[in-house]
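Intended use. Records like the one below are meant for learning the mapping from a protein sequence to its folded structure. Do not use them to infer anything beyond what is encoded.
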Amino acid sequence: MAGFDAHTHLFAPGQILGRQQIAEGDRTFEEMYGDPAAKMATARELLAALDEAGLDGAVAAGFAFSHEPDLIEQNEYLLEAARVSGGRIVAFATVNPSLAGWERVARHAIDLGARGFGELRPHNQGWDPLGEESRRLCALAREAGLVLLWHCSEPVGHRYPGKAGGIGPAEIVELAGEFGGLRMIAAHLGAGASFYLQMPEVRSAIDSLYFDTAAAPLLYDDTSVSRLVDLAGPGRVLFGSDYPLLSPRRQIERLAAQLPGPVLEAVSGGNARRLFADDGNQ
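Structure written out for the chain above:
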């Protein structure tokens, strides 16, 4: 069974070497990567991890940097990695809508082949996920046929580096309802947003919202993914490891122990293949 990892992260080699300098000027980066022990990876390491896990490919997402030069350096690395990967890496560029001129950066990434934007952390960067700039981002992504990957912050539970600063479950439900047809991924099981799919008016309003399983074992118990499948349906759940935080091989093995065959095939890769085939590039 070949699969696809819908949630991984890469950094340019220079950013890995220069993490301390970046951390000095970027509070969220410092929180998550300031510790030299915090894992960061390059494209070569990701491809090796995919081979070990027996996976066809992965989304490589960006980090929500505060400053434009860091955004551009990472985007150019991600997009070049995707270009030379033989189709195995799907690049999601990152943007900061709190910065003047952010749309120029976003459109440049689209021109270079970005397939989505994310992982989006609006509150970390200082923009309102329900505000004017967010709506402009959603409109741009919908127009270009891109996917938005949102870091979803659980409003309860234990704290960890990077927990806060994403989008909350009520916010993503509202935004997905407003922008029908815009494909969005609610990371980390959607921070509980899937519960509200039991409300008929919510379920019908957010039919383009997907949920990924990134970092699930660090947040929830071993029945969480099967419950998510029950709530959202097997066609709207995507396997994600959050590599390099967690091993794709170990996470796909955990998934295989939780889901029956046809559901496992959809969640582990079938849904992602359909999602990223919509624009005809894959």
